[in-house]
Each structure stands twice: as structure tokens, then as C-alpha cells.
Design goal:
CATH class of chain A: Mainly Alpha
Order of helices and strands of chain A: HHHHHHHHHHHHHHHHH
Number of domains of chain A: 1
Strand content of chain B: under 5%
Largest sheet of chain B: 2 strands, antiparallel
Helix content of chain A: 55-70%
Distance between the termini of chain A: 32 Å
Largest sheet of chain A: none
Strand order of the largest sheet of chain B: 1-2
Radius of gyration of chain A: 25 Å
CATH topology of chain A: Formate dehydrogenase/DMSO reductase fold
Oligomer: heterodimer
Strand content of chain A: under 5%
CATH architecture of chain A: Up-down Bundle
Structural class of chain B: mainly alpha
Largest interface: A-B, 15 and 20 residues
Number of helices of chain B: 11
Shape of chain B: extended
Chain lengths: 496, 243
């Protein structure tokens, strides 16, 4: 360690003061701490992947088993649903949409943070994204899978789901392209496939690293197949960068479009409480809000347990908390604006719906939503709170709860008191909590498998934003020799 | 370091992409064709308990369809004739033929619980409503026309054993509901097999069809006319058949 500032730092990675705040090259806080070399990054990131399967830590085994149990339980639940039909949910008139749609919107919203981090922050050259984009993208894919399973199962007759796609058939039936529900099918599928491609493209160089370091045959074959012949030649990198940029450009509009179309599922209908023009931007802000909270929920334990505190630093946590604060405030603005529109429109049905929402039988859900989504993120104005790991985790957890309740409030409270007073109903879920638990099982099972077998940090990209990647960086102890050796190296280069 | 994969594996990404596209297309086509009633139902010709020949009765003897299927123009079902209808002739004709044993047995019983167990050929699912009378006569006055037996049941007069001639699939129904003119014929020719309308009929049929089934009628059963009255069409939207 030649840097005296760093050598004198305390060793607690959660304390801000342990960072050399001055990046030696750009004068900004270093994105990776601990003065790690490229090799040390590789070792740190791959430590969990390269443990032989037999030596998987017991805690990890237990976690996977628990999530796997949830996933298997989900399978059982789907079988039960398949056998009995959606009557097991307790949905009935007037609440025909309940947890099935609530869970769908919840999960698909969560995905948006991954795409924002991987595509939009990439296009805006936000280099700090490199430490968090990989598992944010993984989260996106698994969340979209969970969302797709909700929406595929809510149709009731699951074996008829192919009706959703424009396939030639003997019925001469075609999806109704005037319906936002049909747009939703295309939006979510596009989202899933583009995200999958984007994620995989970014993984290829890291798969190649895993392949090259593999000591056993199956690992060579497994990672070798996934690496698709990556050799890391300059030509490969040129193609890679182009492909990555194109995919980022493809993904960027999806951050806005997917949840816009999800909001159309509600907004295009004529129900007071749903029929609102503010829905698209409000839903997109909410999606990014909930997604960042979920990234925090997953990342904060992971960086501690996997020993990645040098790569995912307090700077990353703070940046994400800032985004949570911004989007949380936008969501709060949207809540307020819904009330203003209900008042200003002078429409008594609209007015009733919103008064009923906050003071009716579901007031408890509404105020849970407001406290979790609007009030709790405001604590992030305080630097001490937004740089604290514990506070970040707690508040992110509240946001997750609040955003689930937001969808519950929108879906159920708008429906439960419809235009016919005699059919008013207080909706109580029957088996739906199992449905939600099952989607969590699916999500965490896939996510834990991902953490175990795929590199959770985009190593190749992280290395490129380290000060060490700068050709003029002289931080290594022998850095001074660099210039002296340069002509000799150039001469030697000819004989390689 | 030795290569992990042999050289031919370089081709696999392209092959997998191409193969999955072709495979997906093949699966879709397979479901579209092999699982469709065009493949599964057309040609269904079960063995009937009595070897009744439509070719003999409707073809060679030129009996009118409605002699036996008497309710075709009046009811939802065309009707399978009771044994008495057979015996109207067969009490006199071929009255000792062993082929008619079952018919005579059913007739002798006289209580109606020994009907001839004819096997149904043209089956529609429970959720599809169909009415023969609505198809055999549409329109009013000089615009009256109908769909001939032959259009859906084929050339019955040539069938020794009746086989299903058309798929009775939803797309098949809808195709005709969208453009019924080619299948309309004058009421007088409903049961005529191998009917060829005269060239003048074509325009007349188009004209009749336009009154029944304006463009877009499938999507909305009702149309508001210029004078503010509403009109229901033959193609009554989804609920015309799925009631």
C-alpha cells in the first residue's frame, strides 16, 4: 500500500471514513475500495462460485432448501389451482381482480430497477452501476418470471393461455389488439427476452473467466458452453461493446413502456380509481421505487455474506437511496395528485372512491401504503441514514411492503364498492397468501441458484472502472517503474 | 491448454437458433393442423346399427332429405326419424330383408324404448349453440334464401355410409358468417344435391348477404341505422353462438 491515506484508514467498511475520498485520477470517490488488484477482484467475486458443490456452506444449503421448498409448494399450489380453478382464491364479484393481479404488478414493477441500472445508467455513463448491475438484472429476470407466472395463472383456464398469443388456430380467434391486456402480453414478453439477452451478453466474459479457472471437467463444459467461445480478443471486445450498447438502447425504452402498459390495464378501464391519466408516469416511478428497494433488500445481505463490501460500497448504497428518495417522493406526489384530480373533476363517483380508499374499510391498507411509501423514504434526506446499512435495509423493506400494498389498494379498494350498493363486499383472501409466498419461493430459489453458480458482480466491467484501469494510474508500489519499462516492453513486444 | 470443445461446436449457436425457430414453427403448425377438426373430425364415418344407405335413398331414389329429417326447416335439430318413418315404406318394401331385422324389432316393440341406436356423426360442443332452422331460411320476402344441406353435410347422395364432410370448427363457421353469399341458395333448392345456381343468382346472393351481415357484424351484433333504429344481425357477435 503506497497510498498513505488508505493505509491509515480504519477497517470497518460500513463507515464512510474508511474510503479514500479522492480518486487519484478523477478526484472523485473511488468506486472500488481496498486498493484491490484485478486478480483480487476475480478471487473475491468468484469465491462463492468456485467452491466445490460438496463444500457449499450449510447456511447456503439451508437457504436454497427453504426457497426450494417454497418453489415446490408453489408447484403444489398451482396443481391445486389447476384442479379446482380460481375459486380457491376467494375472488368474486365485485372484487374479480385481487392478489393475482396485485402480485403480478408487484413483481413486474420490481424488475424495472434492474433495467434502469443496466440500461439507462449505462447510457448515461454512470460508472457506479457496474458493481450492482449483474444481480439487479438477475433480479429483473426472476421477478418478471414470477410476474409472468401470476398473470398466466390468473386466467383460470391455464391450458387456454395460448389464446394470449396470435397463433393460427381452428377457431379463427385472434387476440383483441384494442385491449391493453393484449399489449401487456407483448410488453412483458419483450421485457423478459430483452432482459435475458442483455443479462447473458454481459455474463459472457465472466463465464469465460470461470471456464478458464475451472478445475473439473463439468465446470469446464458448463461454463465453456455458456462462454460461447469467448477468448477476450480485442475483436471480441469490439463486438461485445457494440452488442451491449445496442441492447442497452433496446432496453432503455422498456423501463418506461412496460409499466406504462401495465398501468393501462387499469387506466384504460372506466372504473373510478383506475381510470386516471396519471397512471403511466405514476406506475413507472413506483416500479423503479419498488425495484430499487428490492435491489437493496437483496444486495445488503449479499455484500456482507459474500464479502463484497469493497466492490459494493457505501457510495453505491447511498446512490440507490437517493433514487429511492426521488421516486418515493414522485409516488407521494402521484398519490396527492389523484386526490386533487378527484376533487377538481367534481365527479362524485371519483370523489367517493378516493374518500372510501382512505377512510373506508380498507383504510388500514391505504395508510400502511402511505407510511411505507411516502413517509419512510423521506428519512433518506439525512445523510447518516442513507449511508447506514441497517437503516437502508429497514427502509427498503418498508418500501417493499408499501409497494405491495399500493397495488392492493389500487386493485381492491377501487373494486370492492362498485356502482351497485347491494353487491358491496369486504374482500378477504382465502388461499392467496400461499400464492404470494409461492412466487417468493420461485424468485428466491432462482436467485440463490444464480448467486451460487453465476458471478454476482460484472467483474469485467468493474475492472474497467477501477483507477487501476487507467493507463496513467501509478498506485501500485512498482508503478514508478512503468514509464521506465515502457520502451523496453515495446521492444520486447516485437518478439512475443 | 487443450481445447474444451471440438471445432464443430462453433456452429452450435447458429444451429440452435435456427433449429428452435424451425421447431417452434413446426409445433405451431402441428397444433394448427393435426389438432384441428380438419384433421381430427373430417371423414368420421362410424358404423351404424342398420346399414342404411343414403346413396340408395337420397341418391338413386331421390327422396327429399326432409322426408326423414323433418324438422330441419322448423327446429333446432333436423331430427333423426323414428322407426315409423322407415316402416312407412318398409312395411311393404323389402319387408323380409334380414338387413332390416333391427328396424322391425324396434317397430314391433311399439313402446319407443327400443329405438334404433343410431350413432351421431355431427357433434358440436355444449357451449356452441346451433339452430338448423336459422340456417335453412334467412331474410324475408323475395330476399328469402338459405344454406343448402350439401354445404355443411357434403354430397350425401353419394355416401353409402355417411361421413363428416366439413370440420364444424369455429373458424369454419366464422368464414361463412363473414361471407355467406357464396353459400346462399334459393329456398326451392335447399335439399338439391350438386346444385349450381344460375349466374344471375350471384348478385342476388350478395344483395341478400349484405342485408344479413354487413362488414364488422361479427364484432358487434347490433348496428344503428341512419334513422336511429337498431338492427340485429345474423352474425350475432360472440353471444350468437356462445349463449
Amino acid at each position: 500500500m503506497s497510498n498513505p491515506a488508505e493505509a491509515s484508514l480504519p477497517n470497518d467498511p460500513n463507515v464512510r471514513g474508511d474510503v479514500a475520498l479522492e480518486d487519484p485520477v478523477e478526484g472523485r470517490e473511488s468506486l472500488v475500495r481496498g486498493n484491490l488488484s484485478f486478480h483480487e477482484i476475480t478471487e473475491k467475486v468468484l469465491a462463492v462460485n468456485e467452491k466445490p458443490v460438496a463444500q457449499t456452506p450449510n447456511a447456503f444449503k439451508a437457504a436454497i432448501a427453504f426457497a426450494g421448498l417454497g418453489f415446490a409448494g408453489f408447484g403444489g399450489y398451482v396443481g391445486y389451482l389447476f384442479w379446482e380453478g380460481p375459486g380457491i382464491w376467494g375472488n368474486n364479484n365485485p372484487v374479480g381482480w385481487a392478489w393475482d393481479i396485485v402480485n403480478f404488478v408487484f413483481w413486474v414493477g420490481i424488475g424495472h430497477a434492474g433495467t434502469l441500472i443496466s440500461a439507462i445508467l449505462y447510457l448515461f455513463r454512470q460508472k457506479w452501476r457496474t458493481s450492482i448491475n449483474r444481480y439487479a438484472e438477475a433480479m429483473t429476470i426472476f421477478a418478471v418470471l414470477a410476474a409472468s407466472s401470476c398473470v398466466a395463472l390468473h386466467t383460470g383456464r391455464i391450458w387456454m393461455d395460448f389464446y394470449l398469443f396470435p397463433l393460427p388456430n381452428q377457431m379463427g380467434l385472434w387476440p383483441n389488439f384494442r385491449s391493453p391486456l393484449a399489449w401487456d402480453v407483448f410488453a412483458v414478453n419483450t421485457y423478459l427476452f430483452v432482459s435475458l439477452l442483455f443479462w447473458f451478453t454481459g455474463l459472457v466474459p465472466d463465464f469465460a473467466t470461470l471456464r478458464d479457472r475451472a478445475k473439473v471437467r463439468w465446470r469446464q463444459l458448463f461454463y465453456g458452453a455458456l462462454a460461447m467461445g469467448w477468448r477476450g480478443s480485442t475483436r471480441h471486445w469490439v463486438h461485445y461493446e457494440k452488442a451491449y450498447q445496442i441492447l442497452a438502447a433496446f432496453s432503455a425504452p422498456l423501463v418506461l413502456s412496460v409499466h406504462t402498459i401495465v398501468s393501462f390495464d387499469f387506466a384504460v378501464s372506466q372504473l373510478p380509481g383506475w381510470h386516471t391519466t396519471i397512471f403511466p408516469p405514476y406506475f413507472v416511478a413506483g416500479a423503479i421505487f419498488s425495484g430499487f428497494a428490492m435491489v437493496q433488500t437483496l444486495m445488503l445481505p449479499a455484500r456482507a455474506w459474500l464479502g463484497l463490501k469493497d466492490i459494493v460500497t457505501v457510495k453505491h448504497i447511498e446512490n440507490m437511496n437517493k433514487i429511492i428518495l426521488v421516486t418515493g417522493t414522485l409516488v407521494g406526489y402521484a398519490y396527492a395528485m389523484e386526490y386533487f384530480v378527484a376533487f377538481y373533476s367534481g365527479n362524485e363517483y371519483e370523489g367517493f372512491t378516493f374518500i372510501n380508499r382512505s377512510f373506508g374499510p380498507y383504510a388500514w391498507a391505504y395508510w400502511t401504503m402511505v407510511s411505507c411509501n411516502v413517509i419512510s423514504p423521506q428519512l433518506f434526506w439525512f445523510k447518516r441514514i442513507r449511508t447506514s446499512v441497517t437503516w437502508s435495509f429497514i427502509l427498503a423493506f418498508f418500501v417493499n411492503i408499501g409497494m405491495w400494498f399500493e397495488r392492493f389498494v389500487i386493485t381492491v379498494t377501487s373494486l370492492h364498492r362498485d356502482a351497485l350498493v347491494s353487491s358491496w363486499e369486504y374482500f378477504v383472501p382465502v388461499t392467496e397468501p400461499l400464492f404470494l409466498a409461492g412466487t417468493f419461493g420461485l424468485f428466491f430459489f432462482l436467485f440463490l441458484l444464480f448467486v451460487r453458480f453465476f458471478p454476482v458482480i460484472a467483474m469485467a466491467e468493474v475492472k474497467s472502472v477501477m483507477p487501476q484501469a487507467n493507463p496513467h494510474w501509478e498506485g501500485y508500489e512498482h508503478g514508478g517503474d512503468h514509464h521506465a519499462n515502457a520502451p523496453a516492453a515495446a521492444t520486447a513486444g516485437g518478439s512475443h | 491448454m487443450a481445447q474444451i470443445f471440438p471445432k464443430w461446436t462453433n456452429e452450435t449457436p447458429g444451429l440452435i437458433t435456427f433449429g428452435s425457430l424451425v421447431g417452434l414453427g413446426a409445433v405451431i403448425f402441428a397444433l394448427y393442423w393435426w389438432a384441428s377438426p380438419w384433421n381430427t373430425d373430417v371423414g368420421y364415418a362410424p358404423k351404424q346399427p342398420v346399414a342404411y344407405s343414403h346413396k340408395l335413398h337420397a341418391g338413386d331414389l331421390k327422396m327429399d332429405c326432409r322426408y326423414c329429417h323433418a324438422y330441419a326447416e322448423r327446429g333446432q335439430h333436423a331430427g333423426v326419424p323414428p322407426t315409423q318413418v322407415c316402416m312407412n315404406c318398409h312395411a311393404q318394401v323389402k319387408k323380409d330383408s334380414p338387413k332390416l331385422d333391427l328396424v322391425r324389432k324396434s317397430w314391433a316393440d311399439g313402446k319407443g324404448d327400443e329405438s334404433i341406436p343410431w350413432v351421431r356423426i355431427h357433434k358440436l360442443p355444449d357451449f356452441a349453440y346451433f339452430d338448423h332452422s336459422a340456417h335453412l331460411g334467412v331474410g324475408f320476402g323475395e330476399n328469402r334464401a338459405g344454406i343448402g344441406c350439401e354445404t355443411c353435410h357434403g354430397r350425401i347422395d353419394t355416401m353409402e355410409v355417411v361421413a363428416q364432410n366439413q370440420p364444424l370448427s369455429m373458424a369454419w363457421c366464422i368464414d361463412c358468417h363473414n361471407d355467406p353469399a357464396p353459400n346462399l341458395r334459393p329456398i326451392a333448392n335447399l335439399t338439391q344435391m350438386g346444385f349450381r345456381p344460375d349466374p344471375m343468382w350471384h348478385d342476388k346472393a350478395q344483395q341478400i348477404a349484405a342485408t344479413l351481415n354487413p362488414p364488422g357484424a361479427l364484432a358487434s351484433a347490433m348496428r344503428t341505422n341512419a334513422d336511429g333504429t337498431t338492427q340485429t344481425f345474423a352474425t350475432a357477435g360472440c353471444s350468437g353462438c356462445h349463449r
